[in-house]
């Protein structure tokens, strides 16, 4: 199960991989040293005569072979010990620096049962891979969203902290909207459709369907609307955890059916599994097909830190620089309807027995 928490582990994963390659090279170097040392330990008179039929090695050669084997074994033992005590080489990681780009976080999420008028767009600048100190908030930009059907436009007000807010957005399901951002004399635009979501009909816990039959999992039940192509984004976050998990789904093979979507803590997350008393926030978004394709790639990339995972690449969203296309932006303009709920895990029979 690919999870968004892997992003925090990504630096560690990359450095660990580099240490693996450095260790491999160091071991190869030590093996060459062992071979060289073996040649030095080999006595000049040592030779292996041709075996005679029904005979054996001469006694003097047998003794020489025994002496050589004993001393070579000691040498090999010492050098193998050295391999695992001195083969962590310091590696200076050189990461290629890319150009600074605008990052547009324009997720206009309309929670069911609310007006959806209050919305926020966030703008920041990209940074180099290991840079954690730079101020990336973008101020002084112009942000506007227009309903392509009615022509009504809403201006988002600069809050001087990278956020641009409005209390006047009017969401309409199924209608198209255009985002326009002007910054540093360049104009970025994106177009998206407000996508509906069905209701969550039940939430419960179990231990039956997860990868670990002893761990608690949560089940989110909903009915997929028939006849439509629907995609979903799930956001799970337990109280106390630093980051949420994101999962994406589509109804290609389950159109119109009741769907039971389960979620458990991944063993690779280095987090404790769910326990009675844990409170889990659950969000289910209805998302467009283009955004589904985009977020699936991001989830897969941010989840992969192993040696055999795909190499991460820059993923472009739907924001286009109409002034200078080469200076494209990162991020995405999405319009989604969302349902939110919480679930508190309770004691079950297995939890009671474990105590």
Provide keyphrases for this structure:
355 residues; alpha+beta; 2 domains; twelve-stranded mixed β-sheet; three-stranded antiparallel β-sheet; disordered N terminus
Structural description of this entry:
The structure is a single chain. With 355 residues, the protein is α+β, with helices and mostly antiparallel strands. The chain has two domains: 75 residues; 261 residues, no CATH class. It has four helices and 15 strands. A twelve-stranded mixed beta sheet has the order 11-10-13-15-1-2-5-4-3-6-7-14, covered by helices on one side. A three-stranded antiparallel beta sheet has the order 8-9-12, with no helix packed on it. α1 packs antiparallel against α2. The radius of gyration is 30 Å and the shape is globular. The N terminus is likely disordered.
What is this entry, summarized?
The protein is an alpha+beta fold. The protein has helices at residues 6-41, 59-86, 289-303, 349-354; strands spanning 102-111, 119-125, 142-147, 153-158, 163-166, 176-183, 186-193, 200-206, 217-223, 231-238, 245-250, 258-263, 279-287, 320-321, 330-344. The strands form two sheets. It has a twelve-stranded mixed beta sheet with strand order 11-10-13-15-1-2-5-4-3-6-7-14, covered by helices on one side. Strands 8-9-12 form a three-stranded antiparallel beta sheet, with no helix packed on it.
